[in-house]
Amino acid sequence: MAKIVEASQENITKAGRVITSGGVVVFPTETVYGLAASAFDDDAVRSIFELKGRPSDNPLIVHIADMQDLEKVVSHVPVWVRSLMEKFWPGPISFVLSKHPNISKVATANLSTVSVRMPKHEIAISLIRASGVPLVAPSANISGRPSPTNAHSVTEDFQDSNITILDGGDCEVGIESTVLLCEENKGIIVRPGIITKEMLQEYSEVQILEGWGDKISKPLSPGTKYKHYAPQASVFLVSRFPVLQDSNTLWCEFESKRNDVVSLQEKNVYEIFRQADRDGVREIYILDNPKIQSQKALYNRIQKASEK
Ligand code: TXA
Ligand code: MG
Question: How far does residue 116's CA lie from ligand 1's centre (Å)?
Fold first, then answer.
């Protein structure tokens, strides 16, 4: 059974030792909880793929705590990327850059690039420092399931393993980081997050493009081709709710004001999906309207969760 522990300095130090001896630990970040291992340790990284049931061609994000650690992860940073890092780190954005040879090939699925991020969460930063190495960390869920945004949700997916979960309460953001593929003269968002194209463009002299959802994002970011974020209940995006509502169905709307319709946002979407499963809900109906479509990251997760 996965074990939730208080994120005391003592437990963080112990968790750091687990990582340096080749183990895995779950930690909170501002986006979602992550399942962490040393980015230099092939065997530890392999165990993450096994625990999650993750396809081996879907690369992981490497997490750092300090700017000095960047050079241990990547081999080159274009100037325009450095400015964005200064502006948005620590925070919910990952930059895909050419990789440092020491980073595990298992972590990067044999690609020549690596995704790197500095999370904005005290416990995450303390764990990275206690480990003394950059940490790979995919979301701490079984592949395909909604990402966990609290410690209890992590235990639901890892009941039979004895991993330790550092408790950080509820995640502030609730959905995963923006993933920006960085070329010398342009950036392409391959996974949308709460840091948007407009926000990045304001601080960047090169063009920032949106590249998810269409054909080009598939070769650019291997993870986007898989089904994701889905509860056991079927998710439907609908232009109007069905006539009948009963205990098998749940109605949701972005920023709902109706009593019989759950109000959905980035912060609560995954927990609403997980609670629906706990309650035995079979069908989740989400109202498709311009308001929710303008929330590109949220809309992306719902579209993926509703894929058959
Ligand atoms: O917010 C987050 O990013 C969370 C927390 C724990 O930091 N982590 C997370 O990791 O969402 P994961 O493994 O669930 O998602 C990683 C995404 C995948 O879509 C993957 O395809 C993409 O990042 N990715 C990683 N490395 C890449 C690379 N070299 N090129 C393109 N895409 C990459
Ligand atoms: Mg994930």
Answer: 9
Q: What is the Cα–Cα distance from 238 to 252, expressed in whole angstroms?
A: 10
Q: Which pLDDT does position 308 carry in this prediction?
A: 76
| DSSP characters over 103-159 | S-TTTTTT-SEEEEE----HHHHHHHHHHTS-EE--BSS-TTSPPPSSHHHHHHH-T
Q: How far is the CA of 257 from the centre of ligand 2 (A)?
A: 30
Q: Express as a percent the part of the chain with pLDDT over 70.
A: 98
The whole-number pLDDT of residue 232 equals 95
CA distances from 278 to 147, 151, 153, 200, 274 (A): 15, 16, 11, 38, 6
- Ligand 2 centre from 29 Cα, in Å? 13
pLDDT digits (tens, 9 = 90+) for 232-258: 999 999 999 988 888 899 999 999 999
Which atom number of ligand 1 is nearest to the Cα of residue 113? Answer: 29
Task: Show the tokens assigned to 159.
Answer: 């009941």
Question: At 168, is the secondary structure helix, strand, or coil?
Answer: coil
The encoded tokens of residue 195 equal 């840091």
Q: What mean pLDDT is reported for the chain?
A: 95
252: which strand partners? Answer: 262, 286
Q: Which residue matches tokens 């609730």?
A: 174
Nearest ligand to the CA atom of 74: 1
Interatomic CA distance for residues 123 and 26, integer angstroms: 11
The answer for residues whose C-beta is within 8 angstroms of residue 292's C-beta and 6 or more apart is: 253, 254, 264, 286, 298, 299, 302
User: Which listed ligand is nearest to 94 at the C-alpha?
Assistant: 1
For the segment 126-145, what is each residue's pLDDT rounded down to a tens digit?
999 999 999 999 999 999 99
Ligand 1 neighbourhood includes 31 CB (under 6 angstroms): yes
